[in-house]
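Lab notebook, bench 4. Still working through the backlog of constructs that have no structural model yet. Next entry is a single chain of 630 residues. Request: give me the structure tokens for it.
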Amino acid sequence: MFVQTFGINHCNNNELLQNTTMDIDRNYAELCNDLDLVSRFCLPICCRDNEIREVALDVISKTVEGWLDGVGSPKHSNTENNLEHLPSGNNMNSFCEKKNGESELRNGQSVIANIPKEYMDLVALHLPIILRLSINCPFANVREKCKQILQIVRDRGLPVPYPVKNGPSDYINSREFLSWDTQSDKTHTLFIDAFLQNNRLDHVSQVMGLHPAYLNHFLKTQYFILRGDGPLPYDFRHYIAIMAAGRHQCSYLISLQKQEFLLQGGNPTWLKGLSYIPRKLRNLYEINKILGHRPWLLNKSHIEKLTKGGPDSWSLAEVVHAIVILAHFHSLCSFVFSCGVNEEVDQAGGHAYQASNPTPDDDSSAIAECTTSNNISRSQSQKIVNDTRQNHEGATSCIGRSPPPEPEVGIVTLMARMKTLSERTEECTQTELTKRFENVESQSAELGAVPEPITEVAADISQFIDDPNFLYQDFARRGEISDIPTFRVQDYSWDDHGYSLVNRLYNDVGYLLDDKFKTAYNLTYYTMGGRRDVDTSRFRRAIWNYIQCMFGIRHDDYDYGEINHLLERSLKTFIKSACCYPERVTKKDYDRVLREFEHSEKVHVNLMVLESRMQAELLYALKAVMRYMT
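Model written out:
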């Protein structure tokens, strides 16, 4: 996870597709070379030993200074073909002109002209990574040294990149995240673990860091399914993650997983799209599509198709490993979008260049204007997602767009309702409990119409998507109820069935998943919007069970009438969007719910969306596996 993937500039979609087809072999070959170069350049920094880091930082600083002086060991052989998203020597020269009115001259020649092009390419390649390390590295000496390196470049009269967004989330003010000096020892240790695992402290981990107990289990689980012992090859694992993120057009996850795929020795040709991958992987896509949107349609025949004999056959252990990865990244898309996770600083769209760098307090519109003027823009995939969000903003045909928004009840009222429910002693019959479940289920279906079919998919991720119009459909409107009955947890539960089955077929992952589910469900600080000593268990259970209700899963011992007492319509709408159409969630959606809650509490709600959805997908998938086995 070192360098940004390609941001492709284009005039129209047809031209883009033609250019992508023509250039992708060359682009990904160059990307492989760049990944190898930067990984070897930065790897010594990813070490707990402070002395080793100090030596590595000194080498990096001297290396960059050498490049600026035109000495060193250039790696690139195709220096005439720069990456489009990195400033070439000419672009850097133009920035210097903007800064000073004319190019800075040394001995009658411009600064840029004095530096051989192959060295300028090396500087341009590494600057975004150095910027990222100067901001998002848990080691203070790395941050400080990288800031010094950026200053060295700046002092040479060259432009230095700056982050387009301030902080890991576009929805949460960066001040909500503790500074490096005020973090708890536990949080800081977890951030170090994340950095050493991934060679970066990504924005997802930083947002989850608001809840260190959960982040601990998340990091362990993600590391195990992607890099731990398991039946699937490492390149398969990351490509499956790409396929899963593609279902929600999550450019953030796709970009990171592309790089991990290549770093694990994956075939660059596969990144051309689904038509270029092995038949064995291609056969998994139907399960990916169903599991990501309508998991109740999954049955044993899908498992049977994968495991039937032949050269492309899957073992049952491989199938379960793949299902866990798919469910993990489907649900992680929900978290990324519902928390407004920003692009990584060194990714396309995460940084820009201008002559004088803005301060973190500068207005975002000025940053956007500067970004445009310097021809540095977000990746096309992010542009399409943003356009989609804007097109649906305020539209009554899309979920959650029914103006005017109803006022929320305050936290005091919510706390009173929880107290009343806890004191209630009436017992409902099973018939009444069933009616209340069906009532909540039908109300969920009425929250909004099914979104308009997708007519345009971002060109740089469309190759990973098949049948983009296959989307979530309300379980209550699934058709003949007798064909697809409600999933009753009393008949097949995670605790009694799924946990043991997944552990048997994919050793030890069940323990990790179980700990992660329980942590998200039981996590509490006994606070609510600044009030202390609050028992939030009923509120948390209502959210968890409402999420699974949308996927047709019923807990027979739960009174679904509590959901209507505790969850406002606006919150139900947000949860449905985050679960079922996460790519359409906007900051306006985030801001209009739970307005009296702390941001960390809203992140906790999104963690429950992630985990409850993942558990729902696994329940359907593992039940299909069990039926196939019997």
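Notes after review: The two ends are 42 Å apart (CA to CA). The chain has a mean pLDDT of 83. Flag for follow-up if needed.
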